[in-house]
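// run 5 | inverse folding | seed 20
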């Protein structure tokens, strides 16, 4: 093959790579917001009817508020990524303050509902050993709240801000994917949400040629926290048993 033919063959490949890079640069976060929404609908559609809408006995009102707040976050995330995609940055920034207030509300609700529903499961549904699972929602709220606080702090650094909000939103997905029995029983909900974050890292490699340091710092810390949460849930050491009993009492 001549040098000229090699050049002709290489051009379509280069063009395809450029198109992929351009697509991911413009659409990645919007597309991922739709993926997260799809996971929420898919996962919760399996349980929401008998666990909330037509639950017997009826679930506490606080659980409805929790579901409404977290559903609103998914809609908010789609809206924000859409606004950036169409270059409505000023509207995105204004709406961002609503998101900050919503995130703070979600953290308070998340901790409160975790305790209320654990008490409900133990005292009303008479389920044994449910207190140990508090480590999972507690970690979720610590991680989500920390990431969102940093996102607000670095709101004038778009490359930091968008990744922090994305990772924070992914952190909520364990509740959705955990609705599948195999994933829940094998404690795979955290690896599943970590794969979503890895998608963001792959996006950076393709678009920027390197992984942003937000991922390099955040993901290892999250994995350590996730491992601890699963350990506390599955092993339920004595000190954790004592602590959760005092919290739920």
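// decoded
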């Amino acid at each position: 093959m001549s040098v000229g033919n090699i050049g002709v063959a290489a051009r379509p490949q280069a063009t395809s790579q450029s198109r992929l890079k351009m697509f991911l640069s413009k659409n990645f976060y919007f597309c991922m917001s739709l993926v997260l929404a799809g996971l929420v609908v898919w996962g919760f559609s399996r349980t929401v009817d008998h666990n909330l809408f037509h639950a017997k006995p009826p679930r506490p009102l606080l659980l409805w508020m929790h579901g409404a707040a977290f559903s609103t976050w998914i809609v908010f995330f789609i809206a924000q990524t859409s606004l950036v995609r169409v270059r409505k940055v000023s509207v995105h920034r204004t709406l961002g303050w609503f998101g900050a207030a919503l995130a703070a509300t979600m953290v308070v609700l998340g901790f409160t509902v975790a305790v209320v529903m654990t008490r409900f499961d133990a005292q009303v549904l008479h389920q044994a050993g449910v207190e140990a699972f508090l480590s999972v929602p507690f970690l979720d709220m610590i991680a989500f709240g920390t990431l969102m606080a940093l996102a607000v702090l670095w709101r004038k650094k778009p490359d930091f801000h968008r990744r922090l909000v994305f990772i924070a939103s992914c952190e909520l997905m364990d509740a959705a994917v955990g609705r599948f029995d195999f994933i829940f029983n094998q404690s795979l909900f955290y690896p599943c949400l970590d794969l979503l974050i890895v998608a963001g890292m792959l996006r950076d490699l393709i678009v920027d040629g390197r992984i942003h340091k937000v991922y390099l710092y955040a993901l290892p810390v999250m994995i350590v926290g996730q491992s601890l949460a699963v350990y506390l849930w599955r092993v339920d050491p004595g000190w954790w048993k004592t602590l959760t009993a005092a919290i739920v009492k």
